[in-house]
Amino acid sequence: MLTIPALQTRSHVINQPTTAALELALRYIESKSPLNLTPITNYIRQELIARFATIENWYTQTWLHKQLVFLGIPPLYISILLAIVLLATLRQMYRKSIYLLCNSIGVLYPAYRSIKVLDESAEKEHKIAMAEQKQWLTYWTIYGWLQIADYWSNWFLKFFPGYNFCKLVFLYWAQNDRSKGATIIFEHFVQPLLRNPPHPKGELRPKEHQIQQESTKKQANEITSNPHSNTNKDAPYHHSSEEIW
Predict the structure, then answer these.
(1) Is 60 exceeded by the pLDDT of residue 230?
(2) Where does residue 235 rank: exposed (0-12), middle (13-18), buried (19+ CB within 10 A)?
(3) Which residues of 103-136 are buried (b: 16+ CB within 10 A; e: fewer)?
């Protein structure tokens, strides 16, 4: 039976065999390469291996995996077999029903995260909860507009063979927890459109103009109701001849 010892990394100990094998492969590449590949390999560790370790921790606890290990199949071979089956399934879905694949990637994980955010919003800080809600509300708005664009411009999109693949990449970027593409779109494109349009220099916005008109009207009413209050206060004092003598 093939066994791979646990590896010690900078952050934690890798106990899963497949993740440990990937870590060994990265270390072998780093040691044999004449170039400094540490930035690239560290990025792969953070973006790919860390995510795969989470998935491996999940499926190694399932009943099927435990039964296969009990039959004597090495866990590394089970992971390779699952990866081949998953890639073959995605390939068939992409070839036969790219629309179904796009909807599956664009709906399943975001729906799970949205429900999780709603369930845990009361336990988190207000700023964190608001940031997560903004991320997923913006994502669903973007996804809805994409569905409308697909429906009304289906004949036009047929002239772009790579549109569906670009859509998959865009949806992944928009829903990814690290890139937070939906939040970037909201802050740089949606939020400026929701604000008041810019006005020329010296020209007041409608709300500011209304406030100024109300202030001027209030001052005019005060002067009309008490005409001597301001004039006597501001006018210079002239001494009469009787006061002098």
Answers:
(1) no
(2) exposed
(3) eebbeeebeebbeebeeeeeeeeeeebeebebbb
Selection from 136, 148, 130, 150 nearest residue 107 by Cα: 136
**pTM of the predicted model over 0.85:** no
Handedness of CA 219, 224, 226, 228 (dihedral sign): positive
Q: Tokens 């007041």 label which residue?
A: 204
In angstroms and rounded to an integer, the radius of gyration of the C-alpha atoms of the chain is: 33
Nearest CA among 37, 47, 51 for reference residue 179? 47
State the Cα–Cα distance between residues 65 and 56, nearest whole angstrom: 10
What pLDDT was estimated at residue 187? 87
- Torsion angle (degrees, nearest 10) of CA 171, 177, 181, 186: 120
